[in-house]
Amino acid sequence: MTDYVIPQPPQATLAVAGSSQKFPVRRIWCVGRNYEEHIKEMGHDVRDPPFFFAKPSDAVVADGATIAYPSLTKDCHHEVELVVAMKSGGRNIKADKALDHVYGYGVGIDLTRRDLQIASRKKERPWEVGKAFDNSAPCGPLVPAAKVKDPNKGRIFLKNNGTVKQDGDLAQMIWNVQEIIEKLSEMVELAAGDIIMTGTPAGVAACVPGDKLECEIEGIGKMSVSIGPAAK
Ligand code: MN
Fold first, then answer.
1. Coil, helix or strand for 57?
2. Does the residue 2 lie in any domain?
3. Does residue 10 form part of some domain?
């Protein structure tokens, strides 16, 4: 065993539906602007290609957890998304081979400090302050790919305190799962443990302490996360 000079950080993991085994998370990649209606609500041109940003692996939060309201923001938004978990990877993966590299799928939330994201966008600064903060990637249990009929089809929705806020279908993704993997693998070498958040349908909105966010993708599963008071 390697002798480290500080305690080794814990491995970030995701639950697997119906199993006691965990999925180890290596990196979190996210797709920007992958649903037309969400692009319009954010005031952008739908003809722009999607792009990628990242979150740290330890941003994952398990189903059912309560997280502190994030620091610095007054406008923390929920973005419900399909999560794709890789069991293998490579460079320049072609779309027609891409699904061979997928371990499974889940539903997650790309929590976003919208005010800080927009401020950094205006200043042409990086997005980390808006996207890559602690607990910014709640994610439900993964369902092995063999049990998912079609990862590019199915209702995806999010309720806040019982009211439906986001409601779409995976079929509305501008770039489907295979195409996302193809594009991303041109930018970086993908590997087992990488997860990809694939973009959000319309209806993003602010959440506040006391809110309970419940999400579901038909045929894939559910997850919920509660927002607690800000950390002291
Ligand atoms: Mn997103």
1. helix
2. no
3. no
Question: By residue range, what is the domain housing residue 192?
Answer: 18-230
pTM above 0.90, yes or no: yes
In percent, the amount of the chain with pLDDT more than 70 equals 100
Domain assignment of residue 13, yes or no: no
Q: What's the token pair of residue 96?
A: 């027609």
User: Which residue type does 60 have?
Assistant: V
Cα 82 to ligand 1 centre (Å): 10
Residue 125: pLDDT band (50, 70, 90) is very high
The model's pLDDT over 46-82, given as tens digits with 9 standing for 90+, comes to 767 779 999 999 999 999 999 999 999 999 999 999 9
Q: How far is the CA of 4 from the centre of ligand 1 (A)?
A: 35
Average pLDDT, the chain: 96
Distances (CA, A) of 210 to 115, 132, 167, 232: 20, 22, 22, 16
Q: How far apart are CA 28 and CA 212, in angstroms?
A: 23
CA of 111 to the centre of ligand 1 (A): 8
Find the angle CA(82)-CA(110)-CA(125) to the nearest 5 degrees: 130
- What is the CATH number for 116? 3.90.850.10
